[in-house]
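Posting for a labmate who doesn't have an account.
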Amino acid sequence: MPSPTDVPDPSHPGALSPSGTPAAPAPEPSPHTPRALAVLAGLRSTDPRLCLSEGELHALAPDAARWLDRRASSDEICRTLTSGLPAHFTGRPFHLLRYRLRAYLPPRPNGSPPSARGTASAAPAPLRTCAGCDKVAFRSAEHTHCSTCRAAPPLTPVST
C-alpha cells in the first residue's frame, strides 16, 4: 500500500492524474506573466529559502500576474511574500507562497469589474447648460434640462 507521501498532490505543479496526463489545463497567460516570473525568481535573493523550481515558478506565475494586473508593484509582491516568514519551513515554500498570493490579493483599482480590466474608461458625459434656466451647468448625455427644471411642474400656457 502506498504511503501518503507517495500519492501526488494534485494541486502541486506538474502533478499527474491517475491516467498519467497533466491534472489541469494551463491557464491563459497574462501579458504580465514574464514580469511575474522575474519577481518570483528574484525572491531567492531576498531569502535563499525561497528558491523555487521551474515548475513551481510557472505554477505561481498566474497568481503573481493577477497582482500585476491589479497594478501592484514588484516590491509590493516581494514584501508580501517575504515578510513575516516562519523561522523554519516544514515543506517546500511553494504552498506558503501560493497561499499568500491568493489570500492577500489586492482589490482591483477603482473597483473595476474583471471585464473592464485593460480597457479605457468611458468618457464622462458632456457638460451642458440647462435649456430651461441657462444658469446651471450639469453633465448628461440625454437630458437638456437640469434636475431642478426637470423636477418643476411644466408651465401651462395662459389663455387670453
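Reply:
Got it, the C-alpha cells are right above this. The chain has two domains: 33-112, 122-155.
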